[in-house]
Structures are given as structure tokens and as C-alpha cells.
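tool_call predict_complex ligand=iron/sulfur cluster
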Amino acid sequence: MTYVVTENCIKCKYMDCVEVCPVDCFYEGENFLVIHPDECIDCGVCEPECPAEAIKPDTEPGLESWLQLNTEYASKWPNITQKREGPSDGKDWDGKPGKLALLSTEPGQGD
Ligand code: SF4
Ligand code: SF4
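tool_result ok
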């Protein structure tokens, strides 16, 4: 198993999760983060740290497409281990439906 980042991270991107990961397996897109499934050691430490409750174990049903998305972009985007300031309107997007359509496939800046 692995943990995956899901829809509510999009455009919120608080980045609280990256600093607690013991194996530094978060990767940064322009408006979303992903977890590298082969690097994640399933410790679960990041899950309660996410203010958007966007991090889930992939054992939860219905997360196959998110696992696929995390896998794909973890190999394309830069690694991130240090929290930065998130988007200024991040709180406005917390909990909004339909954010997948707003996912940017562009890489973030990384560390
Ligand atoms: S803490 Fe949650 S919302 Fe913030 S970047 Fe990590 S996964 Fe995304
Ligand atoms: S479950 Fe642990 S190893 Fe996996 S991403 Fe979260 S903090 Fe990192």
C-alpha cells in the first residue's frame, strides 16, 4: 500500500505534509503535491498533518485514479521537503468540488 494525495489538495497546497515525511517522498506540481508510491513507507505521519484532509491510504475504495496520478507525476515533478507559503487564496478553495479540472500538470519549483 501507499498513501496518496487526493483532490482537495488542488489549489490549497498548504504544504504542511512535506516536512513530516521521514523519507522525503513528496513531489511538487504548480498547484498540487503528490506522493511517490514506491518511496512512501506507509508510516501515516502525513495524513493528520494535512489541513485539507487530502492525504488518504490507497486501501480506501475509489482511489485508483489518484494512485495513478500520484505515480505519474512523482516521476515528473521536483522533490519538495520544505514548507513554503501556499497560495494566498488556498483557504477559499478548501472543500470546493470539481477541482480535478483545475489540476495543473506543470511542475512546481521544488526545494
Ligand atoms: S498538507 Fe495537504 S493540502 Fe497541503 S500540500 Fe500537503 S497534501 Fe496538499
Ligand atoms: S505515509 Fe509516511 S512515508 Fe508516506 S508520504 Fe506520508 S509521511 Fe511520507
